[in-house]
Amino acid sequence: MSRRIGRFEVRRELGRGSQSVVYLGFDPQLEREVAIKTLPLGATTGHSQLLDEARMVGRLRHPNIVPIFEAGEADGSLYLVFEYVPGCTLAEFMHQSGSVPPVKAVTLLRAILEAVGCAHGQGIIHRDLKPSNILLDEDGTPRVMDFGISIRRDAGATASAVGTPAYLSPEYVARQEISERGDLYAAGLILFELLTGRRAHVADSLPAMLQRIAKEDVRLPPDVPLDARLQPLVLKSVARDPALRYQTAGQFIEALDHYLDPETEQPLLASGRQSTVDFLLRRMRHKSDFPALSESVTAINRIASSDNETIEKLSNAILNDFALTNKLLRLVNSAYFRPAGGGSISTVSRAVVVLGFEAVRNIAVTVLLFEHLQNKANANQLKEDFLRATLAGVLARDLSVAAQMRDLEQVFICALFHNLGRLLAQFYFPEEADEIRRTVAAQQMPEESAAVQVLGISFEELGVAIARQWGFPPLIVGSMRALPGGKVPAARTVDVRMRVVAGYANELCTMLLTTPLAAQGAQLRQLLVRYAEAVELDEPPVRQSIEQALDQVTEFARIIHLDVQHSPFIRAVRQFGSTRGASVSEQGFSGTDEALDSTLLRDDGLLGNVEPATEAAHDAQAILAAGIQDISNTLVEGFKLNDILRIILETMYRAMGFRRVILCIRDAKAGVMQGRFGFGPDAMAVAKAFRFPLSFTPDIFHAATSKGVDLLISDIDDPKIAARIPDWYRKAVPARAFVLFPLNIKGSPVALIYADHDAPNGIVMPEKELSLLRTLRNQAVLAIKQGG
């Protein structure tokens, strides 16, 4: 056995099957252990199957699926590199422990089904789900692996007959029928095995086993007693007729949740607050929006909160969502942010440079929250709750300005997330949210008390629990808690100041929504007295802050295409302005505003998420021109060279629809051109692979850099050019088409911009776009000259 596969050191064999071998390896670059899957020595087939597995697993992002890091080729053989998960397989665990208690069995299977459901959501059928293909990590968390014989849903009719006999479904044995229900049947067999300590299908020979699977129903062994609620669940999961089984992973999970907590519609208050939170989280995960929202917010929070993360990582996280990118750029160029931006901002990278991590994080999280919390059944109430939360955030920021406080960006998200629990409850538990409002009205009790009575947890506690899960820092989480009654003392620390201003803004919003118009003046004066020591503001600046905040929320609503013309909450705020003889700005709310009517898209008056056609169109010239102006503004302001180069790369990436854009910089000492950073899938990994000599080599990269000419390669396999494509490139990058823009100073190459597309002939650059791209390249040269 070779002691090295590619750059990886091979330490020992982990496992071997008929089609592959898995080794424990060590990555010297990242200094971590990995699992390397390759073909057995001497194998002549199986390369395409390994590559198919890499492509499938590469699409799956779930904590209960072992992720793939990369694929490579060594000595003519393909290999896959996975995360190494210390622990044991579920089969080894079951061999040692025998049967396990029902709650543990159900909990383990639930995590497995979440992974299977993720794969099914991507159209992928595992086909070989069994205990030996499930790892238990050191924490006992199951991780599904080995998608080696998986197929896409639409390929089922032509799939070959493979799989582990004891876990094949009856319909596959009888009719070679392949569907997601086969995976769910295998999951049911795993549950059977966990509970009984034995396999459901056992026979003396393979034909006898297949006959039993196809013709006999699974029966529970009489010597293993199971409670009455669990028996029908298990038998349904392994029903011989696929129509009688759970039809989706979500249905199966729901049945398991019902077993774990039979009072699914009324959480047990006696079970404690944490168990109620866990119950609510399980129920929220049943809706696809919550995992997606949770993952996006957590990723952005992790980057924005770290001292070690870079602008490019935050920019990449946002650029992965095209709609989020466009809305964020429209917001940072809105009236409220424009003065800070110093002119038009056309790239996320520049937005981060100008506004800072916190401001961009706050805008992105706000838009994400709105994008995911849309549901036609709850549209009107969600609109009201979202507008209320957003106005609280903007009002808190304006109050901070008026009171000459700092921390303006943090306080926005603190006040906005004061309402997170209410927003989540309205979206995920609409019936309970309606019951809470009815309870408040009928019993005249505080809203939080009603939430505890109905949900078993207050809105505040629910919001705090989710904010912690999403990775918000303690400063923000702590500020989500309501202030005690009575006069608020002066704030002596940043944390307390955040909490005070967030509470003040939200109490003002509550006053506007719940206090009759005639009593609002007196209520406002009571709030001024309550907060006098902590926020020294008189009535006029507070009223002005409310009016300014409404204007900003108006613009925000227009940008995200939210129809607010008939909003009771906005109407209440407008009426507040009329109580002092001055009208709050109504721009965007008037039914006769033709400009508003032409930009708002409505769906029968419900919340919409429809981009205008002009925004959806990829207007390359406009994006390139805006980027050029953006860079010109930055060049005259004083700049960091890396920031300019990121803005240039991002502009190219967004405008032209490239798959990846990479910047390479000359390493004079080593005499090579080395990739540094970029945008697009696996951009950093691809950038690391870009390392080629500046001395003569008979390839396309030397031709571009030495002569200072822009080159477009439409198809790397074109016979006219194939020999000029270096081997290192073919191994490192899957793209079939690319373009090179060298950056030369006085005839000497100092950098190179590389952009690609996975498909041959996938790059089209009309004359106007090419001219603008070259202008961007020339700006990069100018920046390097000035920065050097």
Low-confidence stretches: 263-272, 338-342, 579-618
User: Major sheet, described briefly?
Assistant: 6 strands, antiparallel
Q: What oligomeric state do these chains adopt?
A: single chain
Shape: flat
In terms of DSSP E residues, the strand content is: 5-15%
In angstroms, what separates the terminal alpha carbons?
50 Å
Based on CA atoms alone, the radius of gyration comes out at 30 Å
Strand order of the largest sheet: 1-2-3-4-6-5
| DSSP summary: helix tally | 34
Mean pLDDT: 78
Give the beta-strand count.
17
Estimate the helix proportion, in percent: 40-55%
Class inferred from helices and paired strands: alpha+beta
Could you describe the 3D structure shown?
The chain has 788 residues and is an alpha+beta fold. 51% of the residues lie in helices and 12% in strands. It contains 34 helices and 17 strands. The strands form four sheets. The protein has a six-stranded antiparallel β-sheet with strand order 1-2-3-4-6-5, covered by helices on one side. It starts with a strand and ends with a helix.
